[in-house]
Design brief:
heterodimer, A: mainly beta, about 0% helix, B: mainly beta, 11 strands
Chain lengths: ~110, ~110
């Protein structure tokens, strides 16, 4: 069974903390994505990566960075967490060719206090 | 950038009835996909329809695509309580991204 696994389902962090969200996929997919989901706004792309060590900004990259040192792992970093980053974070992966489905992790609900 | 728009935003029906959700988009696509999200969880892929297809079926799901109107619909027949979820359409373009709508929240009443 194919799998995308996010390291935490729930996280509570303090304002100003550096936060790491980890995502691992076991499908040997080239493409990985980080989204945030807020009520009424759908999924908004933060960053994506199409290969190891490659990254591209999505629609809302401000306040975030990413790391992809290995093909199976894509990390989202909140350099200095703020309350407006309280959200559901979703990791996804897609294989090649690109016109295929995306596989999602179970989501991480992050609360910044 | 958000392209897909789902309609309605919320839908409440009796178990056994059919549920129809619509999705509209703005620019040409390679394919359009529908996903389901149970409360507080990740998204699960339901069905993909390519731009040269007009209709596709998968079990109780039927998806149509009208590229001239830039719209798609998802029909769930004989709904069950387990169908209660949010449903999202995503449009696939010639780059890496899927572009997502805001979703339709479906509630099936017993």
């Amino acid at each position: 069974d194919v799998k995308v696994t996010q390291s935490s389902r729930y996280l509570v962090k303090r304002t100003g903390e550096k936060v790491f969200l980890e995502c691992v996929q076991d499908m040997d997919h080239e493409n990985m994505f980080w989204y945030r989901q807020d009520p009424g706004l759908g999924l908004r792309l933060i960053y994506f990566s199409y290969d190891v060590k490659m990254k591209e900004k999505g629609d809302i990259p401000e306040g975030y960075s990413v790391s992809r040192e290995k093909k199976e792992r894509f990390s989202l970093i909140l350099e200095s967490a703020s309350t407006n980053q309280t959200s559901m974070y979703l990791c996804a992966s897609r294989g090649q060719p690109l016109n295929t489905e995306a596989f999602f992790g179970q989501g991480t609900r992050l609360t910044v206090v | 950038s958000q392209q897909g728009e789902e309609d309605p935003q919320a839908l409440s029906i009796q178990e056994g009835e059919n549920a129809t959700m619509n999705c509209s988009y703005k620019t040409s696509i390679n394919n359009l996909q529908w996903y389901r999200q149970n409360s507080g969880r990740g998204l699960v892929h339901l069905i993909l329809i390519r731009s040269n297809e007009r209709e596709k079926h998968s079990g109780r799901l039927r998806v149509t695509l009208d590229t001239s109107k830039k719209s798609s619909s998802l029909l769930i027949t004989a709904s069950r309580a387990a169908d209660t979820a949010s449903y999202f359409c995503a449009t696939d373009h010639s780059n890496y991204q899927l572009i997502w709508g805001a979703g339709t929240k479906l509630i099936i009443k017993p």
